[in-house]
């Protein structure tokens, strides 16, 4: 199976993809939009994307793309993020003058740079990409910060392992697939306003994609600009004793001062969940089911 990831081979997304889909063929993509383009075009059968980090928060671009693209979450995975200093074989810590990595990774390793004040932190486009760059250019005074997968991929040497400041550093990854289309009999009405913002309506062809054991649901919705609208939206879950594990709002692209709410709740495709979503569809401007999947 071909699986798209954002970043180079050896990135944390690569590691997550192989854990979720053993023996898959990883297809690296330079940009996040390319991951979704490849998935929708059918050149890959799935994609694995980071959606949230326990320290850095939500990956905003991926959250936005999940709403606007025709994809569906089928699984999640929690990956412990371990940062390592990786250099070319034979290079010593005392030789390092700069260490490169993605800005988020550098920020999660502040203590390392405090202990090594003569080493400059250099932002780079990708964790694994920094190791690839060091190895390809045979740099003797530089290293990259990345996971063990990058050291294996590019034959680098780990000079220091586990340099992240916080050991409770996890990234949540989604396995996503292209959303299947339904027959005309199954389709529900999509208003002109929903078409304008590019959001498939509730029940738009996802049920046959739900894996066995699914007990968690991710949705996105926009409330009407009326008093108590958010309260009414959340009450559809409270009335049915459905537990929310996450709620977050994000600005809508192209619509200043309008917001989308992202919610995860701990139910699969059962009757209370379906009734809650139907009820939500009555009080919200739009609802999109992003995925129904087994909780990690």
Describe the structure.
This protein has three domains: 1-80 and 169-178, Periplasmic binding protein-like II (D-Maltodextrin-Binding Protein, domain 2, 3-Layer(aba) Sandwich), CATH 3.40.190.10; 84-166, 3-Layer(aba) Sandwich (D-Maltodextrin-Binding Protein, domain 2); 182-296, ACT domain (Alpha-Beta Plaits), CATH 3.30.70.260. 29% of the residues lie in helices and 33% in strands. It has ten helices and 15 strands. The strands form three sheets. Strands 1, 2, 3, 4, 5 and 11 form a six-stranded mixed β-sheet that branches. The chain has a five-stranded mixed β-sheet with strand order 8-7-9-6-10. Strands 13-14-12-15 form a four-stranded antiparallel β-sheet, with helices on both faces. It starts with a strand and ends with a strand. Residues 182-203 have low confidence and may be disordered.
């Amino acid at each position: 199976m071909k699986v798209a990831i954002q970043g180079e081979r050896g990135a944390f997304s690569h590691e997550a993809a192989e854990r979720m889909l053993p023996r898959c063929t990883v297809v690296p993509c330079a940009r996040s939009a390319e991951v979704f383009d490849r998935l929708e075009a059918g050149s890959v059968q799935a994609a694995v994307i980071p959606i949230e980090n326990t320290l850095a928060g939500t990956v905003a671009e991926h959250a936005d793309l999940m709403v606007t693209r025709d994809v569906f979450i089928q699984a999640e995975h929690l990956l412990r993020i371990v940062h390592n200093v990786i250099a070319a074989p034979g290079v010593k810590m005392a030789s390092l003058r700069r260490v490169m990595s993605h800005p988020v990774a550098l920020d999660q390793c502040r203590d390392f740079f405090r202990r090594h004040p003569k080493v400059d932190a250099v932002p780079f486009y990708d964790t694994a990409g920094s190791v690839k760059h060091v190895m390809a250019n045979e740099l003797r005074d530089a290293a990259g910060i990345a996971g063990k997968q990058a050291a294996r991929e590019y034959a680098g040497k780990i000079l220091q392992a586990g340099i992240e400041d916080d050991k409770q550093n996890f990234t949540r990854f989604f396995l996503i697939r292209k959303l299947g289309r339904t027959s005309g009999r199954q389709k529900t009405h999509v208003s002109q306003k929903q078409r304008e913002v590019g959001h498939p309506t509730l029940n738009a062809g996802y049920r046959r994609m739900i894996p066995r054991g699914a007990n968690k649901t991710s949705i996105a919705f926009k409330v009407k600009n009326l008093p108590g609208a958010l309260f009414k939206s959340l009450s559809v879950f409270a009335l049915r004793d459905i537990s929310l594990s996450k709620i977050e709002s994000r600005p809508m692209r192209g619509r200043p001062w309008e917001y989308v709410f992202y919610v995860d709740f701990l139910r699969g495709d059962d009757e209370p969940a379906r009734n809650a979503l139907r009820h939500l569809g009555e009080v919200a401007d739009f609802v999109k089911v992003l995925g129904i999947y087994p909780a990690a």
